[in-house]
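Sample intake sheet
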Amino acid sequence: MEKPEPRWPLDLVRCEECSLVQITETVPPESLFSEYAYFSSFSDTMVAHARKIAERLTRERSLDAGSLVVEVASNDGYLLQWYKKAGVPVLGIEPAKNIAEVAVRERDVDTIAEFFGRDIAERLAGEGTQADIIHANNVLAHVADLNGVVAGFKTLLNQNGRVVVEAPYLGDFIDAVEFDTVYHEHLCYFSLTALVRLFASHGLEIVDVERLKIHGGSLRIHAAHAGTTAVSKSVVDLLAQESGWVFDETHHNEFARRVEELRNSLVNCLSDLKDEGKSIVVYGASAKGSTLLNYFGIGAESIDYVVDRSTVKQGRYTPGTHLKICAPEQLLVDQPDYCLLLTWNFADEIMGQQQEYRDRGGKFIIPIPEVRIV
């Protein structure tokens, strides 16, 4: 029996004073994260990315058996496993109990199944826990209580420690028309300008920043207790760049116009292919994919089914559009003419995995930042 699906508004707004871009509706986090279907280790790209930063910080910060690395929203241990293998003690804090159990069972990563914030940070600090490194990868955008989480960083970080945060970057979001990263898990869309103000309000200072290609363009910020470390030129330079657009209303309105152009382009492309009798499926049962399909009005009239590598998602259906999710091997069984790649942020990895499908004549449609067929 079909059950009604929960639905919430999805509107994007910008604060004219602090530059923070955010959605207006906060879905209770227990509804989104207590039982979660995203396991980071299903992505080879994410695992390799995690290993690289873990090995680098272990070396640069001289981490050893007397150190402690904490990760907030540690998922299935995909990052902390590399520190543990290097002999560095770790602690994961992951609210999704099903994922925390995998981290403990499969990677022996000590994990607390709770939401991170002031309370848990104060409790751990009261027990004598102090972190040399606090990681928070792709989680700050998910947080309703930003002040509580950053205050927790401050409480849990030792005097010479570093908070290392990765988050999708507003600049890349706008430039590449990455509207599909707007979904209810992502409450905020950060510029460095907004992050500097947020961290400063809790006695933390962003001392370094890196631009990353992952997830369509992200920032990796390094923060320390205020006044303990010199601020790098990278921070000064990026803040200067942002001053030219981050408060410019015209810049943000142009983004909205380009989204509508993209919708027309993709819908017309799929319609033309269907008129030619071509078969089309989707790769990627992702949250961003749900945003694109539902906002663009693309469903069973154009798409036969969805494939995804995550065994947790296979056999289920996409929200709103009700497309069945199958294993990627289905591509070789049916050999559809086209595959709309909604997890475009992992395009190189996925197309490499699906080389046989491509060798047989299958083509991928990549929708962001513009529609192209490869």
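Comment: DSSP finds 14 helices and 16 strands in the chain. Residues 35 and 96 are 5 Å apart (CA to CA).
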